[in-house]
Amino acid sequence: MTTNLAIEASSLVKTFGDLRAVDGVDLAVPRGSVYGVLGPNGAGKTTTIRMLATLLTPDGGSAHVLGHDVVKEADAVRGVVSLTGQMASVDEDLTGRENLILLGRLYGFKGKAAKARADELLGAFGLDDAATRLTKNYSGGMRRRLDIAASLVVTPELLFLDEPTTGLDPRSRNQVWDIVRALRAAGTTILLCTQYLDEADQLADGIAVIDRGKVIAEGTPGQLKASVGNATLQVRLLNPEQRPQAEQILARELGAVHLEPDPSALSVQSPDADKGAEAVVALSRAGISVAAFTLGQPSLDEVFLALTGHTAETQEEEEVKA
Amino acid sequence: MSTDDIAIRNALSSVPRPPRPGAFNAAMAFGWRGMLKIKHVPEQLLDVTITPVMFLLMFTYLFGGAIAGSTGEYLDYVLPGLLVMSVVFTTVYSGVSLNTDLTKGAVDRFRTLPIWRPAPLVGALLGDAVRYVIAGTVIMTLGVILGFRPGSWPGMFAALALTVVFSFGVSWLFTTLGLLLRSPSAVMNAGFMFIFPLTFLSNAFVEPETLPSVLEAFVNVNPISIMTDAARGLMAGDAVGSDVAISLAVAAGLTAVFMPLTSHLYRTRG
């Protein structure tokens, strides 16, 4: 069966006791794209990925990965996917090189070929110097790079990346992002689970927002932002004393004004860019000096808030309590 | 495009995919992983070397005089039993280390590989078999140093080989336990709660004739007793064929039942 979809899931369900961790998830991931699954901790992202990667059997619904049924043709699925799990999927008691040689052998490379492949990947991922060190002594960023390298011992058609940058410093995060972009450019389909809205915005061609086991919105990053509608106008004044006056004008022009913690800053929702621009002009006509203003599309944080009625953080706390 | 970018793209496209490894090669790769762990974490060999030494010294010199009249005579009786006991005890660690493995992410990757399903388990146990050999060799060497003389030297090595095969079968019991229980310490506790009485209620340390009749009946059918008899026979050079055959059959039976069970649990555990 050939299809243009790398992943086709319908009504996937997984329950753990009373908890419906995944509660009817539909996904359609085009081949060759980076597809983001976005949601807070406990939303069901990892459970979804584990079903698609054949680690968990769904309790309901069905899913095809590259045309193979994840339950009936699990072995065929395993032959074309790689998983970089949320916990680093490397063996901490082995060196980086040994980890890659082991996987090389498990993918069918013989002795010398497995070593050559390991060295090639260590070089490509900037890990030559750390090749003979035990991975338990790696930094988080190095471990993550090794982890991704381990997923590429043979080139997968589909790569599952479960929260690849959680816990990484900004520099390591950027390295991982570069790797994801390089993989996409080389034609690998990537399913990227993340709780960082910024990350999905940066990397994904399409996004499904998951909350409490359900897909609550789907589309490109741009579509999701547009669905929230309003752009946000943020204004910084030269003189904080003029803020009450600026607040009045913006409220008249656009509506409820949000006063930022910074005493010279205000923000307000604007139905479109033109109205926002007019409001800035109105400020300047009234003699209020504007130091800077931005008129941007809403961030995915705001998208999430608008879609779920709560922020990612509040749900995380609820999940911990549950 | 950055140099990293180019390097990664080259690495992606450079090699054609080899054919999948066979069951044997996959298991051997995991066996190699077990060897590497011994190399990098040698302290994990302490339990399999120190414990047998302790038991041998303790039993010989503490109980030997009381049980057999002299330490030398008791050593002759107890050494085959201690060989069986120390190696069988080591099998509990197979379950413990499998359970420890499950708490790590590496297992998730292994489970998504297109390989013979039981390969990670068979490979790990092949690696563990090396530990069994080490534990057995320590006991036999120390026994000889303390004055044990087998009736047949080749028989002594045959006894070690049989004990390792027997223990390979027993270890499937503990890998099953390792997949059913939550924590490594739970596996350790449950494992020893089972293996401790089973080993002591055997003919490894005392002649069954000295026991109350109900106990004696149990001791005589205990597979550990039969395995110990086989080891004694081999070392003395007058092995009873049925003892050896039953020991091998027990190993085969345990493997036949608990290997598929372990494999199933490994595959389906969330």
Automatic annotation (TrEMBL), chain A:
<keyword id="KW-0472">Membrane</keyword>
<dbReference type="InterPro" id="IPR050763">
    <property type="entry name" value="ABC_transporter_ATP-binding"/>
</dbReference>
<dbReference type="InterPro" id="IPR027417">
    <property type="entry name" value="P-loop_NTPase"/>
</dbReference>
<dbReference type="InterPro" id="IPR017871">
    <property type="entry name" value="ABC_transporter-like_CS"/>
</dbReference>
<dbReference type="InterPro" id="IPR025302">
    <property type="entry name" value="DrrA1/2-like_C"/>
</dbReference>
<dbReference type="GO" id="GO:0005524">
    <property type="term" value="F:ATP binding"/>
</dbReference>
<dbReference type="GO" id="GO:1900753">
    <property type="term" value="P:doxorubicin transport"/>
</dbReference>
<dbReference type="InterPro" id="IPR003593">
    <property type="entry name" value="AAA+_ATPase"/>
</dbReference>
<dbReference type="InterPro" id="IPR005894">
    <property type="entry name" value="DrrA"/>
</dbReference>
<protein>
    <submittedName>
        <fullName>ATP-binding cassette domain-containing protein</fullName>
    </submittedName>
</protein>
<keyword id="KW-1003">Cell membrane</keyword>
<dbReference type="Pfam" id="PF00005">
    <property type="entry name" value="ABC_tran"/>
</dbReference>
<keyword id="KW-1278">Translocase</keyword>
<comment type="similarity">
    <text>Belongs to the ABC transporter superfamily. Drug exporter-1 (DrugE1) (TC 3.A.1.105) family.</text>
</comment>
<keyword id="KW-0067">ATP-binding</keyword>
<dbReference type="GO" id="GO:0046677">
    <property type="term" value="P:response to antibiotic"/>
</dbReference>
<dbReference type="GO" id="GO:0016887">
    <property type="term" value="F:ATP hydrolysis activity"/>
</dbReference>
<keyword id="KW-0046">Antibiotic resistance</keyword>
<keyword id="KW-0547">Nucleotide-binding</keyword>
<dbReference type="GO" id="GO:0005886">
    <property type="term" value="C:plasma membrane"/>
</dbReference>
<dbReference type="Pfam" id="PF13732">
    <property type="entry name" value="DrrA1-3_C"/>
</dbReference>
<feature type="domain" description="ABC transporter">
    <location>
        <begin position="7"/>
        <end position="237"/>
    </location>
</feature>
From TrEMBL, chain B:
<feature type="transmembrane region" description="Helical">
    <location>
        <begin position="152"/>
        <end position="174"/>
    </location>
</feature>
<dbReference type="Pfam" id="PF01061">
    <property type="entry name" value="ABC2_membrane"/>
</dbReference>
<keyword id="KW-0472">Membrane</keyword>
<dbReference type="InterPro" id="IPR051784">
    <property type="entry name" value="Nod_factor_ABC_transporter"/>
</dbReference>
<feature type="transmembrane region" description="Helical">
    <location>
        <begin position="186"/>
        <end position="206"/>
    </location>
</feature>
<dbReference type="InterPro" id="IPR000412">
    <property type="entry name" value="ABC_2_transport"/>
</dbReference>
<keyword id="KW-0813">Transport</keyword>
<feature type="domain" description="ABC transmembrane type-2">
    <location>
        <begin position="43"/>
        <end position="269"/>
    </location>
</feature>
<dbReference type="InterPro" id="IPR013525">
    <property type="entry name" value="ABC2_TM"/>
</dbReference>
<keyword id="KW-0812">Transmembrane</keyword>
<dbReference type="GO" id="GO:0043190">
    <property type="term" value="C:ATP-binding cassette (ABC) transporter complex"/>
</dbReference>
<keyword id="KW-1133">Transmembrane helix</keyword>
<keyword id="KW-1003">Cell membrane</keyword>
<feature type="transmembrane region" description="Helical">
    <location>
        <begin position="119"/>
        <end position="146"/>
    </location>
</feature>
<dbReference type="GO" id="GO:0140359">
    <property type="term" value="F:ABC-type transporter activity"/>
</dbReference>
<feature type="transmembrane region" description="Helical">
    <location>
        <begin position="244"/>
        <end position="266"/>
    </location>
</feature>
<protein>
    <recommendedName>
        <fullName>Transport permease protein</fullName>
    </recommendedName>
</protein>
<feature type="transmembrane region" description="Helical">
    <location>
        <begin position="74"/>
        <end position="98"/>
    </location>
</feature>
<feature type="transmembrane region" description="Helical">
    <location>
        <begin position="45"/>
        <end position="68"/>
    </location>
</feature>
<comment type="similarity">
    <text>Belongs to the ABC-2 integral membrane protein family.</text>
</comment>
<dbReference type="InterPro" id="IPR047817">
    <property type="entry name" value="ABC2_TM_bact-type"/>
</dbReference>
